[in-house]
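Predict fold of thioredoxin-dependent peroxiredoxin; 161 aa.
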Amino acid sequence: MSERPDAGDAFPTNTLETPDGGSVSIKDFTGKPAVVFFYPKDNTPGCTNEAKDFTALKEEFDKAGVAILGVSKDPPKSHVKFIEKQGLTIALASDTPADSGKDGLAEALGIWVEKNMYGRTYMGMERTTYLVAADGTISQLWRKVKVKGHAEAVLEAAKAL
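Predicted 3D structure, encoded as C-alpha cells:
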C-alpha cells in the first residue's frame, strides 16, 4: 500500500458501483465540491446515525453546491435495503470487495485497515470523511470519525470552500 493521501493530494478516481447498477467516480463531480464519507457497514448503529445525519443536512449541502456520497464495502443490494429502511436521500456506493483480487478505493486511501474487537483481528473500514474540492484534490479530511456532530462540522467546512 502506498502513502495515505492527505489534504492537497488528488483524490483517487476509482469507479464504484451504485445501488441502481450504475457507477460513480470522483471524476463525476469535477467542477463541484463533494463530500465522500466512508463507513463500515449498512444498518449498524453508528453508520445509520451518520447516514441519517448527512441525509438531514442534504438540503444545506445542496444549497452550498456540494455533493454527498457515502461509501462502504457492502454490496449494492445491501445499500438499496439501507436506503429504503432508513429513508436516506444521499447517494451511496459500493467499494470493490476486498477479496475480489482488486484494490478498492478504501485500499487506495489507506483506510481499509486491520481492526481488533473482542480479541478478534479482521480487516475493516476506518470511518473517514473527505471534502474534495472542485478540482478533485482533497481539501480537508477527518480520520477515525466520531459520528455525533460530524455531519454539521463537514457542512461548515464545505460552506467555506
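Strands lie at 16-17, 23-24, 34-38, 67-72, 91-94, 112-117, 120-125, 128-132, 138-142.
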